[in-house]
Amino acid sequence: MIGLLATRNLTQKPWRSVFLLFGFSMGVAVMIVLLSIGEALLDQAKDEKLVGGGTITVLPEGVDVEVLKTGGLGGLFFSIDHARFIHRQLLAAPRLRDVVSAAAPQIEGKLLYLRTADGPERAVRASGDIPSLTAAVGAGPDVAAGRWADDSLDRRWRSPTDLELRHDIDHFHLPPREVAGDPSWAEWHYFNVISPDRKRWAFVSFILAGEVGGKAGRWGGQVLVTLHEQGRPQRRFTSAAPASSVRFSTSDADLAIGESGVEVQPDGRYRVRAHAREDGSGVPLSLDLVVAPAAGAYFPGAALTSGVVSGYVVPALRADATGSLCVAATCTAYEGAQAYHDHNWGVWRGVTWEWGAARAGDYTLLYGRVEPPDSVSAAQPLFVYLIDQAGFLAVFRPRAIRYEDGRTTLVGGRAIRTPSFAEMVDVRGDDTLRLTLRIEDASASDTRADAVERGDALAARRLVRPYFVQMKGTATIGGRIRKTPLAGTGAGFFETYR
User: Fold this and answer.
1) Cα angle 6, 7, 10; round to 5
2) Which of 66, 84, 314, 354 is the most buried (most CB within 10 A)?
3) What is the chain's mean pLDDT, rounded?
4) 125, 216, 213: which is closest to 174 by C-alpha?
5) Could you tell me the pLDDT band of residue 371, with boundaries at 50, 70 and 90?
């Protein structure tokens, strides 16, 4: 009966029958293709070598893993910023040795363009890795001939010496094309050191400003040292040098400005020498310090390129200073004193910031944000970067910093309100942080006048909040990270605008 009905339907309505058979065939074909793709993806997911070996693959946020595995276009254009820092301070850090036996950085199928001297440009796909690390995660290739081993650049990437690390992250820059010729470009090494009783401290800056690298006479260097004693006015010492007396490099951290300078020693410590005279009185100052960064205590840096060009790195978030600082014939000796060093560069017209760095017991913290000139009505993200004796520990993102302006500071005979207390709070999953700052001393500069601090090359910045406030005080942290309580208090320095 079924056969008879099928035959009569086919003879009486042949086109409808053909259409139904075609649709059924297409459905079966699509199902076969989907099942085949699903099986292939399952096999790829199980094949560790297809995703670089090991048992876990770390990718940038937002990358489609399935597209990456199948070689789709979306897998060609991605990178992991600060990959070396992530490898050394996160994935391969001593803190994770109980769960991570090996970690390897790899680039697979990166789109590059090859151009020969006399030929056309060609698009190529290239891969890269570090042989010893790739072999450690079980993804090394079968070498038919020759030698597959780390070269000197591989070794420098995975385990740089302290000297190499300082030069890699702390070198100088030339103004990029988009800001070439901008007189507000400035770059500087900054150090601070505080006495054991926390009553006296010094800020030391080695500044390049103007059209750096351009014609002589349009840029130069300056040494700036400000000495502070709690409850007393600051003293300011400066020394300027023309471009012909300045030496800097885009491949190392060494800097010379006249008779003053910064030099990284073979063991990675900084030799800091400064000669300057007090503004007004002409009293001479000489400083000779060796600043020794703690192992792993650095911030790898951040760069802004949208709206404003600027960069910031902290090679010595926690450091000790030994040496002397002399004003005229009176010298102060330092022996393992608390110190700090950072490096800034960029265009600073209209830019303000929140910043602070402090020790808090076994912890050291850095917080901040940069406010470009077009962000008056919208607060930029704030971060708190936390390290302990094992290196990087966590990053928090408080929504705001709450100030209490309970102090009065004189600037050019005018009294302005400055902070006496500040607080930041954040909760990230099970981790929590409460950071409080108690201000013990504050000084302020009017950015509309000459000689503002921290390397600003322009006198008239036209800021909504024109007073740059530098503060000394204590930082206290509380909270919990990975079920471990946070607790500590210590000295630090903080900056804001009013």
Assistant:
1) 85
2) 314
3) 86
4) 213
5) confident
Cβ distance 379 to 460 under 8 Å? Answer: no
Topology (CATH) of 161-347: AttH-like fold (2.40.370)
Cα dihedral sign, 156-158-164-167: positive
Q: Which two tokens stand for residue 150?
A: 């780390």
Instruction: Identify the pLDDT of residue 374.
Output: 58
Helix and strand numbers (H, E) in the chain are 7, 25
Cα–Cα distance, 385 to 138 (Å, whole number): 34
Give dist(CA 211, CA 220) in Å, integer.
8
pLDDT of 2 above 80: no
Per 3-state DSSP, the chain is made up of helix, strand and coil in percentages (nearest 5) of 20, 45, 35
Residue 451: both structure tokens together:
């000689």
Q: What is the pLDDT of residue 459?
A: 42
Quickly tell me which residue has 């390897």 as its tokens.
104
Q: Cα–Cα distance between 398 and 383 in angstroms, integer?
A: 6
Q: Decide if 161-347 and 350-498 have a common fold.
A: yes
Answer yes or no: is pLDDT of 213 > 90.
Answer: no
Q: What pLDDT does residue 56 have?
A: 79
Region 328-333 average pLDDT: 94
- CB contact at 8 A, 357 and 366: yes
Spell out the domain ranges in the chain: 65-136+154-158, 161-347, 350-498
Rounded (5°) CA angle 105-107-86? 35
Angle, to 10 degrees, between the axis of helix 14-46 and the axis of helix 2-12?
A: 110
Which sign does the torsion angle of CA 461, 467, 471, 475 carry? negative
190: Cα separation from own chain's centroid: 16
Contact 473, 438 (CB under 8 A): yes
Query: What residues have CB less than 8 Å from 145, skipping those under 6 apart?
Result: none
Give the predicted TM-score (pTM) of the model. 0.84
Cα–Cα distance, 38 to 44 (Å, whole number): 10
- The DSSP secondary-structure symbol of 269 reads P
> With 50 as the cut, is the pLDDT of residue 460 above it?
no
The structural architecture, per CATH, of the domain 350-498 is Beta Barrel (2.40)
Mean pLDDT for the stretch of residues 302-328: 90
User: Span 51-67, mean pLDDT?
Assistant: 68
Confidence of residue 93 (pLDDT cuts 50, 70, 90): confident
Pairing of strands 431-446, 235-242: unpaired
